[in-house]
Amino acid sequence: MARPNQSEERRQELIPVLAKAFADLGYRRATTAALAERCGLRENQLYRLWPSKKAMFLASIDYLFEHTASKWRELLATEDARTPAERILTWEGEHRGETGLHRITFAGLNETNDPEVRDALCRMFQKFHTFITQQVQAQREGAHDAGQPDEMLTAWGIIGLGMMANITQELKLLNRDTQGQMVNEVGLQMLNAKRG
Amino acid sequence: MARPNQSEERRQELIPVLAKAFADLGYRRATTAALAERCGLRENQLYRLWPSKKAMFLASIDYLFEHTASKWRELLATEDARTPAERILTWEGEHRGETGLHRITFAGLNETNDPEVRDALCRMFQKFHTFITQQVQAQREGAHDAGQPDEMLTAWGIIGLGMMANITQELKLLNRDTQGQMVNEVGLQMLNAKRG
DNA sequence: CCCATATGTAAGTATATACTTACATTAATC
DNA sequence: GATTAATGTAAGTATATACTTACATATGGG
Question: How sure is the predictor about A115, in pLDDT bands with cuts at 50, 70 and 90?
Fold first, then answer.
């Protein structure tokens, strides 16, 4: 034998670079040439690590989800005057779109004809949804008002609010402050509101 | 002169076909060959009517927005026990995604590097936002509660809810009934809620 | 009928780009 | 230090597809 195979380590190092490239450029404009250049490699070196561009894309989706989720877990662990759900909302309002996860999501939503891409997106949304549903339940602490939507539906609403915040950012429809205010105010309302 | 030019009429006839093609296939898979075939034409005939594929795409965005907006105006005109806003929410909960506008939106969001596409999307979202803001204002009739987000922010939240409903549909994450329920319940909550 | 323009048909081109191949060089293990 | 797999370099290929060109045919107005 000679020279140990370090492919796995290389992959771990490169995935954030790929994810950023897909986030910056979208799927189409993130050509294999561009990806390789950002990685400081040649195209065929990338292809030694992943079998296809699609595989690189799927790896990026998983990575960015994990990245976001671990940030959220961290927020849950720290103590604060606010509830966990409120902390996440505030943090998202302030840091919205930093990872570029949404751009990758848009790119993925354009490729939903591809079963693997579709599955990756499904898993991602499902995980977010489970996570947020738990937070909504914790926030409401069983004090379920008569007219209030159940926690699962509210959770989808909150995810939608986040998507919309990303879109308004992408299209420069709202400035950062207004965007943060939106996520905070409308999000809190969905969390806590009672029917009038 | 000979033979009157009927290009404009042809365009009007064909735009719905193009829009459906983009909605079904997304931008990338809607190749010019596919577009031409669905129109029952050759590619160069399409190119006599529009200068580029992008132009066909932009025309489709405008068309689908107008299509949706006119449906909503119709809903506003009809009388009902419910308020106008409630009527739109219910209708959207039931007919969500029929036009395929959302798929075109996703495709567009992937091409936001292109200034023309970006502008078309901005115009579309702005128009929807203006429209919905008016409905929220009408619904709340100036009875603005202290903790309630202002109507413009709420309107973005409602649009986000609609986007999310489209995504859950696209990825088959929710069945139609639950989806409609989500749009209705969470939407109504955003419209009417008072802080608990 | 004429003729100018619209419409139809059938190729072709140019380019981008995902992916491959061939070969040179390096470096761990024995 | 020899061997062998990993890594680096530089081309090349194959294909898809947006867009074009060349030419034939139809059709309405003078």
Answer: very high
Which of A165, A185, A190 is nearest residue B189 as measured by Cβ atoms? A190
Model confidence pLDDT, tens digit, residues A56-99: 999 999 999 999 999 999 998 988 888 888 888 888 888 888 88
Q: Name the CATH topology of A60-192.
A: Tetracycline Repressor; domain 2 (1.10.357)
Partner-chain contact A161 B162, CB within 8 Å: no
* Distance from C-alpha of B119 to C-alpha of B121, rounded to nearest angstrom: 5
Domain ranges of chain A: 60-192
**Topology at the third CATH level for domain B7-192:** Tetracycline Repressor; domain 2 (1.10.357)
What is the model's pTM? 0.92
Q: Which nucleotide is nearest to A56 (CA to C1')?
A: C18
pLDDT at residue B196, as a whole number: 43
Q: B24, B56, B25: which is closest to B43 by C-alpha? A: B56
Collect all residues with Cβ–Cβ distance below 8 Å to A96 and sequence separation of at least 6: A162, A165, A166, A169, A179, A180, A183
CA–C1' B132–C30 (A)? 75
